[in-house]
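Morning F.,

Quick status update on the modeling queue. The single chain you submitted on Monday has been processed. Sequence for confirmation:
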Amino acid sequence: MKKIIIRTDSSFAIGSGHVMRCLTIAHKLKELGFYVQFWMEPLAGNLINYVAQQGFGLISSAEEADLYIVDHYELNIDWEKYIRQYTKKIMIIDDLARTHDCDLLLDQNVVPDFESRYDGLVPNHCVKLLGPKYLIMREEFLMARNQMSQRHNNIKRLLVFMGGTDPTNETMKILIALEDYSFAQIDIVVGNGNVHKGEIKEICNERNYQYHCQISYMAQLMQQADFCIGAGGGTMWERCYVGLPSSSTIVAANQLITTTYAAQLGAVINLGWHEDVTVEKYRNLLKGLRDVNVKKLGNISLQLTAAPQPNAWLSQIMELLA
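Structure tokens below.
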């Protein structure tokens, strides 16, 4: 049995996105009979226990493996060269167009000239998987895309999800803004790593909002919602994939290019950098929703994320391990 080690991390500062998309890959590889372990550091706000609950073993230092999958902004080409002594192959998941020593690179983001983004930054033999064809989507999202109903411009159900940790506490800003507005249903989603989740839950209970924490049915909520107030990053592509009209607040520097470009293409409403997105700005968004062509937003999102096949990255990993 071939062994795969996934090197990634999560924390209050890093967020949970890297671990969540690695779990999607890990489950697929495990289903195919590979032995998959995670290497994660015990940072504040980590998801180590969650990964263990998902059925994966954990290590705390380098071990020999047939493949290392690395999804980590703080590990660079020097670390990759170091880890070569432990593995035959290296796969990198990146969003930042950095220099790498790897055999397979995946960057799912839609940015200007994404097809040539890594030219000269990886070895000549490296296989590059670039753009929305290679979106990393959990099975629930693949199913949701196949079961979509027609979107309409009447916004009755609102979804709020600002990422697993929401390090800039956007959810609380939105809750304050929502005091002046009502919808048929409001779903508020947080992750276990959100340090304000207790206070958020109390507010949801007081107002009869639906509170959800560390869920496995996000795609279902996205199917049911008419509009989502969200963050940039991986969750933005999930919303686009199921055609959910949404706004995006940029809560991390790596989200700037992708969120800006997605907005230029008409797929999302870009509210801007989180420090500039005030409670009043969220109020203005809510006030102006009646004038937003959400159906058009949803259709452009679907077109942008149209892929020839689900999880197109999986066959390339299989070839790498052959």
